[in-house]
């Protein structure tokens, strides 16, 4: 394999991308760079596919299956901690405030390894078929894949045979994890606006305090997972934002918070969403406030790997990775990857690879401090070790593509 | 009295000021206008007194006491409801966000009536002494008066005999309320930053959720007034702002909220501040989080009217207002007015006047719905009726000045 | 005055009563003893006045006003701490459980001093009129006075001229405190039964957990005093009992708690009661539980001293106690004393005397630790120092009686 | 099979036992009846085995394995709803209070079917070996099995080959569920005593209110499962009892509540127990209260079926029940059954059978209302339908015994 030859390119590209993250649907520099590299490699390139910055590169080589390979491009409004020389210092406006921007979910490793895999595959002459490389925007908003559907349908009216994607996770660099069936959760996004009655901070009796009300809701929402979801059913209810008030001595008229819900089964999802509604509106009655406004943001679908294709890929991974390949536990994280094959109703496989020092990971597992010692996605110190992370990701993508190409 | 002659000027000025509110320490247009009007009237005018936009006008007329008359100039980051033709449409940046700006505390009535009172006093020739008109910035931040102290000391090295100030309140227009002793509360401002551990919204077990933690603090802070302050001791603990998080599916690393505390006695104040510290840091231990950071913002002093001067003024008000003059209940609102006479250790008197339709107020009192039906200071519909509010405020200021001038 | 002569009797009686407390409406031994002592003194004695154990002793001496003197007889379900030789070791059944019983509200001092005062008055020959000594049961249940009304009306169809009562309080022994107007609060008693759905402790998702629900109510009730009652209006909302469940691994079907409310004004009382109802029923909606049952227990009336009679008594106290007599702050405690004069619509005066070491009290006041260092009524170490407490209480009752007798 | 012949006996016995439940370690009538029936059948009977009421019946028939068959005997302090003619009206004292007693966990079906199975087995002559029938007390206290260990060791010094037990569950009557590996959770019991400072209900500022404190703990404990346990790790934290206070107007000095914890893995168990300790003691700091007392009650072990024996039994169940036999989901309920084979370190298998109308169960599953419509163990309406519940339980026990006998 020619991975050695392309390793410097992949590592340089990773460092460059890590240092220049861009927020969802604003991946202009990133998209231009992806297109430029695809053109260098001689692929048929389409930019602006979908509503924003999607890039598609097509490599056609004779008869054979059409295989879609996907990397996502967006960073997050997270300020990176000082740890590596290629640290991001980017900032951008996020919900009316200036925030640091960081590839805190590792999409930079996805892009670098997909560009690397394309170079390796281009070097190889023992396959035929069509490779469709998709660089997708706005995975974090769960609307980038859906936004590309119309453009993809136009580019590939004949459909695809399989879609393949991967994600870096907390875990030992060098490891690959794959399972058939459900692998990632459904995600729901609720925006709650609580309507109180504002007034002077010294006269609470003339107001309905929306901060006490919304704080009570946050506390009470904890009972859903604790008391209403069966212990054997997985669910998460996270309040990720809470904003109210402009000044300490003014009781504001309203408060606003956002909830993220993760579930693995539709009945559990329905029960959780109903409980949120019940708790939020019930708390308004407790406070004597008008009903709160509950808006629904983008929802992410379940990610359910095709069982047959997963078995075929697992066999290929066994050969490529040996003991470093293991089954994946279903994750409560969510993805919109499945919206890409959903364009044509095609099957798909999605897998995971570790990104952290294997010694650190082993030690943390032994001590039972994995959750504390190994950075989790979206945290400001989620900075994978470069190797063997990038080698593994590149090899996994090449292996997967070849498992389905002729 | 020549009030009739100046009434149109006062009303026009009020409408103009109401339509052009400015935030604390940014009262540039307002200060320039105050100075222009003082100059028109022939006073000795000093601009930029203190750290920002303070204006002082001095009217000297022979021997006699020096009497300081004060109006405050700043508006609030509140978006006005549509109700009057002279509604404010101003906006400004407040804590990183754009907000509407409004004279939601009635400082426009203070300025208009003080300018009117100066015109009435200038017309009258039966007094002697020195009038010092002070237009103060940043009352809402409780630092405008302190900022003017150095400038005032330089302008008036000989000191003053008395300082006089007034404030519009929910209550019937036409009424004036005055009492000796404590009339406004001490105010403390605490800024709490809660340090959790951020991470992905679907993996709460790897994080310390600062939003659940800060919300629990808000809920638990309610027990201070409910359980730790004696029912006969007045205290208020208001959480006026709460900000955390940038995105629904990221558990942020920290949360921040601001507390406003009002008390009337030093032992109660100390107990409340100690309880806040205990609850905030105890909750951090509950959550397994590091200690929170508690910063102290500007504190407002108690406002304690001089007993003798209050008695003298009460007699003058009885004559001027008859039954419309009544004793004032101590208020939990706070002021930095007392920092002006504190420049020289001079005595002071501070009183209140109502600003709302007397029929509405009477009806609300009867129904027991005063708190609901009569707008409170800082609310987006705190818009006094123009008359008899402005007449009353102007007359009160003229009467008060004359009570202490020779 | 012949107090010295009766002091040993009073102290012995106090020790005896303290060692033998009885719960409300079960004051059988105590009532028999009171009656026995009244008979010894030659009074006309009536036992079983009212629905339980009330005792009335009448001393007629010629023309003159009829003055009712009252002591209450009941102890509390509180287990006394080991501190004095005459400590109570009594126990009784209270709400299905065995509890210690203690004179933790000092009614023993009321009885001892009233018996003492009657002996002193009997010794004196310079007064005329009728003394009605009332030993009342069940003050703690706020139904003992009401229970005696019918009996009293029958005994004294001509009515009384004045009713007099007193209570020992945390404060320096030797001090007496009296004011006209409102002196004690109204009290309301609510019993809340929360209806959840029981089940096995390991399957919360099949239940509606009434303990989490009732605990949330308790937490949320704190916002009434903290946010809904104006700081200048006194109110207390105490949850005094909370009982649910029989076994750790059974989620019970219901929970039950009791609330005590103290207020000084009818509009505040109405607002607080409405807020309790709103919060309790709103929380049931939050939990998806059926509406809770809210029962109203006995309510205590306001205690409002007659202004004229209070002024007359204050003059007498000034003479008797000098500087040790001071005005009383209105107390949030409640009493049913006023239900006795309410039998005939007669005026009344109710005052307080301290019961603790003056040096301890002074020191605690100086340090600001009064609330911590001086035991409060109903606590298991509310054990007054015998002297000058009993002398003061006896003298106060004699002085008061003589102030109204001819 | 001779089940038909014994069915009336089994049903009569069930009705009798259901109508006469007894609390844990007080199963005197029940134990006597079990022994009487074993004697009727001609078994070697041992009563009072262990610390209380355990009964052992031994049936020896030639060479062959020794198979222990277990039924538990205790009822619960639950008051039965009126639903069946053989309803329990028993009452007993439980933690100082009188409570109804009910077989709300279905142990009556265990006993009736084990007695039935022994009769069926006694009728059959095509097996050899030794059957040890164990009627165990105090399963609900998780100490009955441990209490029998010493007695069992003395009776059966040579050990046993296998132990077999079963439990009725919410589910369709006629169904049997069995899996190898972990089938029931570990259980921990914590008793928390919160130490506040008592006082009069109208003077909260002089107290540390233990009810508000304990209620806050209950609310905050919900965050453990909601935020600290990974969604893929099963855990339950139930507060099953909460008791504080004797009277509405006394703030008590302490409060007491009991927690039940269910977990399936030791690291999760340790994290949950540590979080409880942290939250409880942290809340004491929040309240300024002394540290709470946390006692540990009886803990229940994990129930982990022997894989080989489970596979053998599954094959036998497939033959006996066909499609009505299915794998068991691990349950968060706990058992002390495994403490019986632990006497000798012997393997064991434990399985479940349904007890409710199959049409009702099917409909509830379809509607997604299983949790609501099918009664759960320990609830006051957990009353299995008699058939095919008892037939299934008897057949399962006979089948299981024969699968391991020669």
Automatic annotation (TrEMBL), chains A, B, C, D:
Annotated signal sequence range: none
Chain sites annotated for binding Mn(2+): 105, 107, 140, 167
Necessary cofactors: Mn(2+)
Domain called Peptidase M20 dimerisation: residue spans: 191-282
Pfam family, one: M20_dimer
GO molecular function, one term: N-acetyldiaminopimelate deacetylase activity
GO biological process: diaminopimelate biosynthetic process
Bound cofactor: record note: The Mn(2+) ion enhances activity.
Keyword vocabulary terms for this entry: Hydrolase, Manganese, Metal-binding
The keyword Ligase appears for this protein: no
Superkingdom as given in the UniProt entry: Bacteria
InterPro entries listed in its UniProt record: Amidohydrolase, Bact_exopeptidase_dim_dom, Peptidase_M20, Peptidase_M20_dimer
Keyword DNA damage: no
Protein name: Peptidase M20 dimerisation domain-containing protein
Organism: Agrococcus pavilionensis RW1
Highest classification ranks of the organism: Bacteria, Bacillati, Actinomycetota, Actinomycetes, Micrococcales
């Amino acid at each position: 394999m020619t991975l050695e030859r392309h390793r410097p390119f992949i590592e340089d590209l990773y460092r460059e991308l890590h240092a220049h993250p861009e927020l969802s649907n604003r991946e202009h520099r990133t998209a231009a760079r992806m297109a430029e590299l695809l053109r260098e490699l001689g692929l048929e390139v389409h930019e602006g596919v979908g509503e924003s910055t999607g890039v598609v590169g097509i490599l056609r080589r004779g008869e054979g299956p059409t295989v879609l390979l996907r990397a996502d491009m967006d960073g997050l409004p997270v300020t990176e901690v000082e740890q590596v020389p290629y640290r991001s210092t980017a900032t951008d406006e996020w919900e009316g405030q200036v925030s640091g921007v960081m590839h805190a979910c590792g999409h930079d490793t996805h892009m670098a390894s997909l560009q690397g895999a394309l170079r390796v595959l281009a070097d190889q002459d023992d396959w035929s078929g069509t490779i469709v490389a998709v660089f997708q925007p706005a995975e974090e908003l769960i609307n980038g894949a859906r936004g590309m559907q119309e453009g993809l349908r136009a580019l590939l009216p004949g459909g695809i045979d399989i879609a393949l994607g991967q994600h870096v996770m907390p875990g030992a660099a060098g490891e690959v994890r794959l399972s058939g069936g459900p692998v990632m959760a459904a995600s729901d996004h609720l925006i709650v606006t609580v309507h109180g009655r504002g007034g002077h901070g010294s006269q609470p009796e003339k107001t309905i305090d929306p901060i006490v009300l919304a704080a009570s809701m946050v506390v009470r929402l904890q009972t859903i997972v604790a008391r209403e979801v069966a212990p054997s059913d997985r669910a998460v209810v996270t309040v990720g934002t809470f904003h109210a008030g402009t000044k300490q001595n003014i009781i504001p008229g309203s408060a606003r918070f956002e909830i993220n819900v993760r579930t693995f089964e539709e009945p559990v999802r329905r029960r959780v969403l109903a409980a949120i509604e019940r708790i939020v509106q019930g708390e308004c009655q407790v406070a004597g406030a008008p009903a709160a406004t509950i808006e629904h943001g983008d929802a992410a679908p379940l990610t359910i790997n095709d069982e047959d294709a997963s078995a075929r890929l697992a066999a290929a991974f066994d050969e490529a990775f040996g003991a470093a390949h293991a089954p994946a536990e279903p994750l409560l994280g969510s993805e919109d990857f499945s919206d890409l094959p959903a364009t044509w109703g095609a099957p798909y496989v999605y897998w995971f690879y570790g990104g952290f020092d294997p010694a650190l990971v082993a030690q943390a597992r032994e001590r039972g401090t994995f959750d504390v010692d190994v950075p989790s996605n979206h945290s400001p110190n989620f900075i994978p070790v470069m190797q063997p992370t990038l080698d593994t990701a590149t090899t996994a993508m090449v292996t997967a593509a070849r498992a389905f190409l002729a």
